[in-house]
Amino acid sequence: MPMTHPEGMQPIPVEPEGAVAVPVGDSGFTLALPVFEGPLQLLLHLIESRQLDVLTVPLAEVADAYVEHLSRHPVDAANLSEFVSIAAQLIFLKSKRLLPTEPIPPLPEGGDEPDEEELRRRILEYRALRDASKVLGAMDGAAPVMRREPREADLPEVPAEPIAVGILVAAIEALAAIPEPVAPPPAVVPREITIGQQIAVLRQALSAGGRVLLQTILARCGSRTEAAVTFLAALELVRRRQVTAEQHDIFGPIVIEASAGEVMP
Amino acid sequence: MERDQPADLGAFFEALLFIAERPLTTPELAELGSVPRLQAEAELSALAERLEEDERGLRVQHHDGAWQLVTAPEVGARLATYAAREEARLSSAALEALAVIAYRQPCTRGDVERVRGVDSDYVIRSLMHRRLVVEVGRRDTPGRPVLFGTTFSFLERFGLTSIDDLPPLSSDAAQLTALTEPAEPAVADGE
Predict the structure, then answer these.
(1) Are A147 and B70 in contact (CB under 8 A)?
(2) Which of A27, A206, A248, B95 could disulfide-link A264, Cβ–Cβ 3.0 to 4.6 Å?
């Protein structure tokens, strides 16, 4: 707990406007808790609830309350890094105040040392627009102005020229001339081909003479998929050293031969 | 004849805005009235003032170089009862983002986030969805971020006749605006 600023550092009731769903446990159960959406909102609330003057209060004075709040209350998780960034700035400002005799050498140009006045400007700017947003909120829909709704007459007109009966007859006849679409099969049933099945096919083919031309088997395949699976089955048999495959030229015939000692069914 | 011309023009514009089913731009009105753009603008402004001074039930609304005739905010609440229009209230987050865009327009999502200190992607998209803000262009800086501005729907909902009608920001903020507003090319508004 802070020792340096005893005047009003006790936890204060916090009542942000927005309520955010906070998950509890991992069961998908959420509680709507009032949380601060952004660090500036929280910071401004801490200052205003203590009736401090934003224009003059050393921001270091609210550092403890800010960190205290962060550690005890949920904040909008999406903006957690923003909260932490402001917390770091406040702690830095406070540390500078606590060590007044040892001035911290200024960082080189372009460094991101927190600047109290810059932070104060942001708070003030936020406050101005927050106040404006409250005024807007009160105006929202209170005294709306309305424009004239487009009437039927404003809608695009239907062409008014009479349509010759012949055109309609021709249209219906043209429609009638189109053959009825063929009903699709009730359902598409994919045919599953497994490598195992195709291994059996290959072994069957090899059982006759122990040699077979792969292309003759592929030629019997009904689909591209079946051919691909058959080819994979051949590779699998080669891998198992149950057959050997030979091809002399690119795109030439592939001869599959049962390895010595392999008994084909 | 010469002397009567301006009054006639005002009446003509009033009637034109009455029958138009969408906002009319200054060039359109100038062409329909066969007058230079500046004269059309002056005439429309005079019409707007007359309607307000005489406490009529109608107002001229002006936004982004276009004009439309709307009902007066003074009768809005009672009209809303008749029109049975009840819109969902905006969340405080949406109002904050809307305020930044309304007062700083045209501005980018980054500008909104810088002021609010929080990610504002979602609220801006919800404002776009409600047609309260629209993309109005891109800023000529690296990444060419999208610029947002408010719409006629925004003015209608908040009972404003133009964005000049927005309640003024508190005084210390007005000074701050000069300090923190990024330098950007002047935005041509109409002429």
Answers:
(1) yes
(2) A206
